[in-house]
């Protein structure tokens, strides 16, 4: 049976994902070999195939792990006992911060998504759609309550915000003038201003 940790105690799947993320970000998915990933992670090919099955599975997991985190956090914001405007602002800011905190993952995904098989691509799109639908439901809740304007359809508002989020990897720099929280606050405020009745 494959070990779940290496000698230092780090979980093997975590080591593989960290190595794959770094190499995919530096070299690109298509220019990174399985051998390079396992060497960087300090494990065998057998360990990679035990946990992931293929390099493509690693690519899918790079994005899915961030999306799972964001979905859990969105669900918590959406279910909170707070006014809808506050819940939406918290959710809108959080997706910016968590994307910036995982900028390599986001960049890799948007650069390399076309390498996924149609089946895996469909799975990832389904996960992302579930997130967007929950986010849209917050906007629709506020529109029904009269807190948000109905002048712009909720779908378009979602596309507007996530267009900004999905492009963070092309311009955000950790050594830039704004912290992740400041960028998140500005983008969340823009969203709420666009929804103001």
From TrEMBL:
Q: DNA-binding region spans which residues?
A: 33-52
Stretches that traverse the bilayer: none
Alphabetized, the UniProt keywords read:
DNA-binding, Repressor, Transcription, Transcription regulation
**Residue limits of the HTH tetR-type domain?**
10-70
Recorded hits in PROSITE patterns, A to Z, give: HTH_TETR_1, HTH_TETR_2
Q: Spell out the protein name for this chain.
A: TetR/AcrR family transcriptional regulator
Native species: Streptomyces tanashiensis
The lineage, from the top, is: Bacteria, Bacillati, Actinomycetota, Actinomycetes, Kitasatosporales
